[in-house]
Amino acid sequence: MLNKLNIKQPKGKAVTNIEDGLAAANDIGYPVLVRPSYVLGGRAMRIVFSDNELKHYLNEAVLIDKDQPVLVDRYISGKELEVDAVCDTKDVFIPGIMEHVERTGVHSGDSISVYPTFSVSKEIKEKIVDYSIRLGIGIGIKGPFNIQFIVDDYGEVYVIEVNPRSSRTVPFISKTTGVKLANIAAKISLGYSLESLGFSTGVLDEKKNRWYVKVPVFSYQKLRGVDTLLSPEMKSTGEAIGYDSTLTRAIYKGLQAAGLRVENYGTILVTVADEDKPKALTLVKRFYDLGFNIEATEGTAEYLKKNGIRTRTRKKLSEGSDEIHEALKQGHIAYVINTVSPSGYSALHDGFLIRRFAVENGVTAFTSLDTVEKLLDVLEEITIRISTIDV
User: Fold this and answer.
1) Which CATH number goes with the domain that contains 21?
2) What's the rounded Cα separation, in Å, for the pair 141 and 119?
3) Fewer CB near the terminus (10 Å): N or C of the chain?
């Protein structure tokens, strides 16, 4: 269908055995996104980076045979956007386009979603609207549907998936735009046309005077043993909304409503994968300039010190030390920032225990640097800084 409509989607293949899975992954090129062919909430979805990880996934994580194929898709890193729309087979009405804070690789239900979009061009939005209209009419949808998009680093737009049903974001986009999307969709299903209801093909103009932010709510404290690492598998159990005239204030309200502690002082504990260290350095410098103390595990601490950040080194749990656990219990750590290398998906390691200790001691832990970046935007706005008098 997408090929006929000249719409791009990540290259992929359905496989029914391990050998075909390995062949498909090597043809597509790692990393790849793997998942059962029929799945809700991202259940058992995984990003894999090597043959060994893929073998483990196909052997242990899922059942694979001719009746239960596994989809192997190219993984594209980029911005994720989505639309909720309604189609009557002739017209497609789109209330608005939502943009996620977190990049691809985090389930849409676990991402912070923002309306209106905050970082994409007019041309990209026009392409998303065009794709949505062509897909709705081309598939012949009669009722509501949801589409998720990727915009890669070169500005190319790809379709992740089309869901011919109402999505979890329908209440959010309905509240933010004032369009009763479920009501319209129900009437379309009963035989009304969009034209008869006063709607035409296209998208509403974005509201420029107010920002709306949907923040996921997690129940990690109630679900013991669950890893807090954000991934393609959905873990959130609810959502909250914040809105204001500025994006930072809307994010602040959303984070507070979702039950996250937003502190503009204290200590951050940092332990990040090697590939994330350059971006993490930029973010840690911003925390440092706000007056936060910095603590980190050995590898991260050495990198930060070499780049001019005063950092206290904490020994890892695998080194026989419980000082990180004790530090989290003492209450002086405001945030934990932890990312994992690709191999971290398949191993129970220090990061998992640090994330669990953080949850159990009421410390906010972030596993996406994109989320941390938006948090810092909030902290820098709510913090009164000390400055010198110019002479």
Assistant:
1) 3.30.1490.20
2) 30
3) C
